[in-house]
Design goal:
Number of strands: 22
Shape: globular
Number of domains: 3
Pfam families: SLFN-g3_helicase
Number of helices: 22
Radius of gyration: 26 Å
Organism: Anaerobutyricum hallii
Protein name: DUF2075 domain-containing protein
Largest sheet: 6 strands, parallel
Helix content: 25-40%
Structural class: alpha/beta
């Protein structure tokens, strides 16, 4: 069945323009267009510029003319709301109709438009109060195609406000957006979290822990941001005082969350509620706990003192400073000795959550567009140290390369295409790097990954020579979103928590194959945070390098949404991978 094109009309966002448009509609010879605009549900986008960037409000209505006049009435009577800005700015209004629009479909179109606009660089603010995704209705199967047609038409109207879909979908903000439609798994978890938060806050309970286990790609970040935003929406609606923080250890992820909170108006109303764990701990006390703290990437929390953090366990310190703590955790992504937790200690936290029926597991793999056979192959490699025959699957590629040059060229080829522009080379931390010191060899301009004659700078190296203007252009972008990084090699420290279209993984000398088993060799690693001694609770010192390098490899190999390309420096591993591919 061919789905018709949407009807999109753009007018000035004024009463006079709206009155004229309503009269014009009545005079149309095309009665179908007249009927769709006047009698069907429509979606609309108010937009105007502020300090060189756009602000938008997206809505849906059964009567676009009445609803828009209500906005104008509110603009004239309300000095605080977003509507007031319509009177002071040169605004325009997009009115979107389709012959298949019904209430549920327009709500989903509205929600996806909000999600996209939140992710657009040129958009400063999205003023809608909350998302309202729909789930099962007729014709939900037409949603994607109708939305694609709408976005393409909007893109032709204004490329800056409506960039290509692939550009939006590859942005770090889009990946972490709280406006995504949740899976059943995520939806149930969100409902439980909100219920438990309500119970704790109404009963004056403190130090409540909600513990969520989920492996890489199971949707922890979206669940985190969605629930965080929903609680603020509920507080806004109830007009109650509310203190809710979102904590994450990665500088890049902090930037992403802050951009989301800023665009949704949370930072302006509630202050800096997105922070790093150490800053939060140092700025809050146990005798004055905040309402709720969300911890993304809880496996990155410190379990010993380090620099500005003087405590012994960041998770324990956060729990003492909040009435409810919601932590997202994946023990297979613990990468350093200072994050390492003994099994008994980790189980203590899980049991604390279980006692209150606050323990949740996310199972569904959402990042990799891969079937169960592909997931099983990666699990076997990165968890069981077993190399199985590589399965074939539509929609996801595992390819083995015999030289880093070939892998690099293939990733660059993928990165040139709009749909796979977020493709990068990443590697195990098996080559020297320092963010403080210059390379030891004077002839080296950058810290580099070197394999034979092939070499490429580590992440963050090329920007050292950028001008202030060039640095300004990449500020706020995740490492993989920055254009120059196609000529760099990423590590777990820049790519953890982010997606790539295709991940070109270089397995350095620390990953070997001997006697039918994959070996993780700490003596070949330059990741000193993983290979140094760790003092345990009983005072003994142990090394966990093998396990932590195994985790490092898992993080790298689970970054690709559409595929992972692999080059192994170890000759025996390379041969075994080639046989497994054949």
């Amino acid at each position: 069945m061919n789905i018709s094109q949407p009807i999109i009309k753009k007018i000035e966002d004024t009463r006079n323009a709206l009155d004229f448009f309503e009269k014009e509609i009545l005079l149309l010879e095309d009665k179908k267009t007249q009927k769709i605009i006047k009698n069907f549900p429509t979606v609309y986008i108010h937009n105007w510029k502020n300090s060189g960037k756009f602000e938008v409000y997206i809505g849906e209505s059964n009567n676009i003319f009445r609803r828009t006049r209500e906005h104008f009435d509110m603009a004239e009577n309300n000095a605080e709301g977003w509507q007031r800005k319509l009177l002071n700015k040169k605004a325009s209004l997009f009115i979107i109709g389709h012959e298949h629009f019904n209430k549920s479909l327009t709500l989903d179109i509205e929600n996806r438009l909000m999600n996209y606009m939140l992710s657009v660089d040129s958009v400063k603010s999205v003023h809608n109060s909350r998302a309202n995704p729909q789930f099962d209705y007729y014709p939900v199967e037409e949603l994607d195609e109708i939305f694609n047609k709408i976005w393409m038409k909007l893109h032709k109207e204004n490329e800056k406000l409506f960039p290509t879909e692939s550009f939006v979908q590859n942005s770090a903000i889009y990946k972490a957006s709280p406006l995504h439609k949740l899976t059943e798994d995520q939806k149930k978890a969100k409902e439980i979290i909100i219920q438990k938060v309500d119970e704790a806050l109404s009963s004056e309970k403190t130090e409540q822990l909600i513990f969520i286990d989920g492996e890489a790609g199971t949707g922890k970040t979206v669940l985190n941001s969605s629930t965080f935003y929903e609680l603020y929406c509920q507080a806004e609606k109830a007009k109650k005082d509310f203190q809710c923080y979102l904590l994450v250890n990665h500088d890049e992820q902090v930037t992403v969350y802050k951009q989301i909170a800023k665009k949704l108006g949370i930072l302006e109303k509630y202050g800096n509620v997105v922070d790093k764990p150490t800053t939060f701990i140092n700025n809050h006390t146990e005798d004055n706990p905040v309402d709720v703290v969300f911890v993304d990437e809880g496996h990155l929390l410190l379990t010993q003192g380090k620099q500005s953090y003087k405590g012994k366990d960041q998770l324990e310190d956060i729990i003492k400073r909040a009435r409810v703590t919601v932590v997202m955790f994946d023990e297979n992504q613990i990468l350093t000795t200072e994050q390492f937790r003994e099994a008994e200690e980790l189980e203590k936290y899980r049991n604390k959550a279980r006692e209150e029926d606050n323990y949740i597991i996310l199972h569904e793999q959402l990042r990799m567009q891969a079937n169960s056979a592909i997931v099983d192959w990666i699990d076997a490699f990165t968890k069981e140290r077993i190399l199985k025959k590589i399965p074939k699957a539509d929609g996801y590629d595992i390819k083995i390369f015999n030289s880093p040059e070939e892998l690099d060229l293939k990733i660059k080829e993928k990165a040139k295409k709009k749909k796979s522009s977020l493709s990068r080379v990443i590697a195990t931390y098996d080559w020297e790097y320092s963010s403080i010191h210059e390379p030891k060899d004077r002839w080296l301009k950058y810290w580099e990954v070197m394999v034979g004659k092939w070499h490429k700078p580590w992440n963050r190296e090329l920007e050292k020579n950028f001008s202030k203007e060039e640095k300004k252009q990449i500020k706020g972008l995740a490492w993989a979103e920055q254009p120059q990084t196609i000529d760099e090699v990423g590590s777990t420290y820049t790519i953890q928590g982010f997606d790539l279209n295709y991940a070109g993984v270089i397995l350095g000398p620390s990953v070997k194959y001997r006697n039918g088993e994959i070996i993780f060799d700490p003596t070949e690693s330059h990741n000193h945070k993983a290979t140094r001694n760790r003092t345990l609770g009983d005072g003994s010192k142990q090394k966990f390098g093998e396990l932590l390098i195994q985790h490092e490899v898992r993080v790298l190999m689970t970054r690709g949404v559409n595929g992972v390309y692999i080059y192994a420096c170890d000759e025996q591993l390379r041969e075994a991978l080639n046989k497994a591919e054949g």
